Amino acid sequence: MYGCNGHNWVQLGSVLGTLGPSWQKVPTRPVEEIARKYIDAFWHIYDPMNFLKRTFRHFRMMNGWRAKSDRPFTRTEWQLFSAICWRQGVLRSTRFRFWGQLLAIALTRPRLLYDYLVALSTGEHFFQFRHVVKAQLEEQLAALAAAQSVQAVAERQVAEVTG
Protein backbone atom coordinates (compact mmCIF):
# COMPACT_ATOMS: atom_id res chain seq x y z
CA MET A 1 0.00 0.00 0.00
CA TYR A 2 2.81 2.42 0.84
CA GLY A 3 5.60 2.65 -1.68
CA CYS A 4 8.50 5.02 -1.93
CA ASN A 5 6.99 7.62 -4.25
CA GLY A 6 6.17 10.95 -2.69
CA HIS A 7 2.39 10.55 -2.66
CA ASN A 8 2.38 7.35 -0.67
CA TRP A 9 4.77 8.74 1.93
CA VAL A 10 2.39 11.67 2.34
CA GLN A 11 -0.42 9.17 2.90
CA LEU A 12 1.71 7.34 5.46
CA GLY A 13 2.44 10.62 7.23
CA SER A 14 -1.25 11.48 7.38
CA VAL A 15 -2.05 8.04 8.79
CA LEU A 16 0.67 8.37 11.41
CA GLY A 17 -0.52 11.89 12.18
CA THR A 18 -3.93 10.49 13.14
CA LEU A 19 -2.29 8.49 15.92
CA GLY A 20 -2.16 11.66 17.94
CA PRO A 21 0.28 12.85 20.58
CA SER A 22 1.70 9.39 21.30
CA TRP A 23 3.34 9.41 17.86
CA GLN A 24 4.57 13.00 17.94
CA LYS A 25 7.39 13.12 20.47
CA VAL A 26 9.22 16.31 21.28
CA PRO A 27 12.93 15.70 21.82
CA THR A 28 14.13 16.39 25.35
CA ARG A 29 17.68 17.08 24.21
CA PRO A 30 18.93 19.92 22.01
CA VAL A 31 19.06 19.24 18.27
CA GLU A 32 22.80 19.91 18.31
CA GLU A 33 23.38 17.11 20.82
CA ILE A 34 21.25 14.66 18.84
CA ALA A 35 23.07 15.54 15.62
CA ARG A 36 26.49 15.15 17.28
CA LYS A 37 25.50 11.72 18.61
CA TYR A 38 24.34 10.74 15.12
CA ILE A 39 27.60 11.92 13.57
CA ASP A 40 29.63 10.01 16.15
CA ALA A 41 27.58 6.84 15.72
CA PHE A 42 27.74 6.96 11.91
CA TRP A 43 31.47 7.67 12.05
CA HIS A 44 32.07 4.74 14.41
CA ILE A 45 29.86 2.25 12.56
CA TYR A 46 31.59 2.87 9.23
CA ASP A 47 35.12 3.11 10.54
CA PRO A 48 37.11 0.76 8.25
CA MET A 49 38.53 -1.30 11.14
CA ASN A 50 35.17 -1.68 12.88
CA PHE A 51 33.45 -2.57 9.60
CA LEU A 52 36.12 -5.16 8.80
CA LYS A 53 35.80 -6.77 12.25
CA ARG A 54 32.01 -6.82 12.09
CA THR A 55 31.90 -8.26 8.57
CA PHE A 56 34.37 -11.00 9.50
CA ARG A 57 32.41 -11.87 12.64
CA HIS A 58 29.16 -12.14 10.66
CA PHE A 59 30.71 -14.32 7.97
CA ARG A 60 32.22 -16.60 10.61
CA MET A 61 28.72 -17.12 12.02
CA MET A 62 27.39 -18.26 8.64
CA ASN A 63 27.32 -21.96 7.85
CA GLY A 64 29.45 -21.38 4.80
CA TRP A 65 27.34 -23.33 2.37
CA ARG A 66 26.77 -21.90 -1.04
CA ALA A 67 26.28 -23.74 -4.27
CA LYS A 68 29.53 -24.09 -6.15
CA SER A 69 29.73 -21.87 -9.18
CA ASP A 70 32.03 -22.35 -12.13
CA ARG A 71 31.27 -18.88 -13.44
CA PRO A 72 34.52 -17.01 -13.98
CA PHE A 73 35.01 -13.57 -12.47
CA THR A 74 34.33 -10.70 -14.81
CA ARG A 75 36.93 -8.04 -15.47
CA THR A 76 34.94 -5.57 -13.38
CA GLU A 77 34.90 -7.98 -10.43
CA TRP A 78 38.66 -8.46 -10.67
CA GLN A 79 39.13 -4.70 -10.69
CA LEU A 80 36.83 -4.31 -7.70
CA PHE A 81 38.54 -7.04 -5.70
CA SER A 82 42.01 -5.75 -6.52
CA ALA A 83 40.91 -2.26 -5.40
CA ILE A 84 39.66 -3.72 -2.10
CA CYS A 85 42.92 -5.58 -1.58
CA TRP A 86 44.89 -2.42 -2.36
CA ARG A 87 42.87 -0.11 -0.12
CA GLN A 88 42.23 -2.39 2.83
CA GLY A 89 45.29 -4.58 2.51
CA VAL A 90 47.96 -1.98 1.74
CA LEU A 91 46.84 1.64 2.19
CA ARG A 92 44.78 1.57 5.37
CA SER A 93 45.70 0.66 8.91
CA THR A 94 43.48 -2.41 8.44
CA ARG A 95 46.19 -4.12 6.39
CA PHE A 96 47.26 -6.85 8.84
CA ARG A 97 43.75 -7.66 10.01
CA PHE A 98 42.46 -7.66 6.40
CA TRP A 99 44.95 -10.26 5.16
CA GLY A 100 44.51 -12.45 8.23
CA GLN A 101 40.75 -12.40 7.98
CA LEU A 102 40.78 -12.89 4.22
CA LEU A 103 42.96 -15.97 4.67
CA ALA A 104 40.71 -17.27 7.46
CA ILE A 105 37.59 -16.90 5.32
CA ALA A 106 39.35 -18.50 2.33
CA LEU A 107 40.39 -21.50 4.43
CA THR A 108 37.31 -22.00 6.59
CA ARG A 109 34.48 -20.68 4.38
CA PRO A 110 35.85 -20.83 0.82
CA ARG A 111 32.41 -20.74 -0.79
CA LEU A 112 31.66 -17.47 0.99
CA LEU A 113 34.85 -15.75 -0.11
CA TYR A 114 33.17 -14.02 -3.05
CA ASP A 115 30.34 -12.77 -0.83
CA TYR A 116 32.83 -11.63 1.80
CA LEU A 117 34.67 -9.51 -0.75
CA VAL A 118 31.37 -8.10 -2.01
CA ALA A 119 30.43 -7.12 1.56
CA LEU A 120 33.81 -5.42 1.98
CA SER A 121 33.30 -3.56 -1.29
CA THR A 122 29.98 -2.26 0.06
CA GLY A 123 31.91 -0.86 3.00
CA GLU A 124 34.12 1.10 0.61
CA HIS A 125 31.13 3.24 -0.30
CA PHE A 126 30.34 3.99 3.33
CA PHE A 127 33.96 4.77 4.22
CA GLN A 128 33.77 7.69 1.80
CA PHE A 129 30.14 8.53 2.52
CA ARG A 130 30.75 9.03 6.23
CA HIS A 131 32.97 12.01 5.40
CA VAL A 132 30.17 13.53 3.31
CA VAL A 133 27.59 12.96 6.06
CA LYS A 134 29.84 14.48 8.71
CA ALA A 135 30.63 17.55 6.59
CA GLN A 136 26.99 18.17 5.66
CA LEU A 137 25.69 17.78 9.20
CA GLU A 138 28.41 19.99 10.66
CA GLU A 139 27.61 22.62 8.02
CA GLN A 140 23.93 22.46 8.98
CA LEU A 141 24.81 22.67 12.68
CA ALA A 142 26.95 25.76 12.01
CA ALA A 143 24.08 27.35 10.06
CA LEU A 144 21.70 26.54 12.91
CA ALA A 145 24.07 28.08 15.47
CA ALA A 146 24.43 31.20 13.34
CA ALA A 147 20.66 31.51 12.96
CA GLN A 148 20.19 31.07 16.70
CA SER A 149 22.75 33.77 17.48
CA VAL A 150 21.10 36.18 15.01
CA GLN A 151 17.75 35.41 16.60
CA ALA A 152 19.16 36.00 20.10
CA VAL A 153 20.60 39.38 19.03
CA ALA A 154 17.27 40.37 17.47
CA GLU A 155 15.41 39.36 20.62
CA ARG A 156 17.78 41.45 22.77
CA GLN A 157 17.30 44.44 20.51
CA VAL A 158 13.52 44.07 20.66
CA ALA A 159 13.72 43.78 24.47
CA GLU A 160 15.85 46.95 24.66
CA VAL A 161 13.44 48.90 22.46
CA THR A 162 10.30 47.74 24.29
CA GLY A 163 11.85 47.67 27.77
Question: Topology, pairings included?
Answer:
Elements lengths: L5 H12 L13 H15 L2 H14 L13 H17 L3 H14 L4 H50 L1
Helix pairs in contact: 2-6, 3-5, 3-6, 4-5
What does this structure look like?
The structure is a single chain. This protein is mostly helical and 163 residues long. Helix content is 75%, strand content 0%. The protein is built from 6 helices and no strands. The chain has helices spanning 6-17, 31-45, 48-61, 75-91, 95-108, 113-162. The longest helix has 50 residues, at 113-162. The N and C termini lie far apart (56 Å).
Shape: elongated
Described by strand count, sense and barrel closure, the largest sheet is: none
Look at the helices and sheets and give the structural class. mainly alpha
Helix content: over 70%
Beta-strand content estimate: under 5%
Average pLDDT across residues? Answer: 83
**Low confidence ranges:** 1-12
Helix-strand pattern = HHHHHH
Distance between the termini: 56 Å
Annotation, overall tally of beta strands = 0
C-alpha Rg, in Å?
A: 24 Å
Quick overview of this protein structure:
This protein has 163 residues and is an all-alpha fold. Helix content is 75%, strand content 0%.
Keywords:
163 residues, disordered N terminus, 6 helices, mainly alpha, elongated, single chain
